[in-house]
Amino acid sequence: MAVRDGEIAAQALAVNLTTTKTLAFVVSAFYAGLAGGLHSAALRYVAPESFDLFEVVLQFCMVVVGGLGSVIGSALGAALVLALRETLRAAVGTQEILFGGLLIACIVFMPRGLVSLLRWNGSPWLERLHRRGRRAAGDETASWQPSR
User: Fold this and answer.
1) In this structure, is residue 140 part of a structural domain?
2) Considering the chain, what is the average pLDDT of its residues?
3) Is residue 135 part of a domain?
4) What is the chain's alpha carbon radius of gyration, rounded to the nearest angstrom?
5) pLDDT of 140 above 60
6) What separation in angstroms does the CA of 51 have from each of 39, 41, 56, 71, 78?
7) Domain limits for position 21
8) Is 131's pLDDT higher than 80?
9) Highest mean pLDDT among 8-12, 32-36, 53-57
10) Which of 42, 66, 94, 106 is the most buried (most CB within 10 A)?
11) Burial degree of 5 (CB within 10 A; 0-12, 13-18, 19+)
12) Rounded to whole angstroms, what are the CA distances from 11 to 14, 23, 60?
């Protein structure tokens, strides 16, 4: 996270940027390959036509709607987008337009995604979960502030 938030600060803390970025790339490539292997095993058939531009935009929409940099947000975004896709299954011609509009609306009105609404409202369960994690780490004095 130090490299993502500030490369100069990470270098000042003696973090090797080349090694860290390469490791991040390798780990993400490993998970992408694993997901592709599981996908092909589940379908038992892989064709290039099944990965067109709409699928790429749909996957990008899942991450942006949920929230960049959050696993919980990405899962929420995937659930919402897939539910919306199943609801709009009959309207095949308008799906692209609606998902494009959803993507633009989320970028303009909710740049941090759905997960920012949970943090912004200061949900009690989210605060308890965060405090419990800090207690487990031994930090009793730190107070939790929702990110905005």
Assistant:
1) no
2) 79
3) no
4) 19
5) no
6) 12, 16, 7, 23, 17
7) 1-46
8) no
9) 32-36
10) 66
11) exposed
12) 5, 16, 30
* Three-state DSSP string of the chain: CHHHHCHHHHHHCCCCHHHHHHHHHHHHHHHHHHHHHHHHHHHCCCCHHHCCHHHHHHHHHHHHHHCCCCHHHHHHHHHHHHHHHHHCCCCHHHHHHHHHHHHHHHHHHCCCCHHHHHHHHCCHHHHHHHHHHHHHHCCCCCCCCCCC
Report if residue 38 sits inside a domain: yes
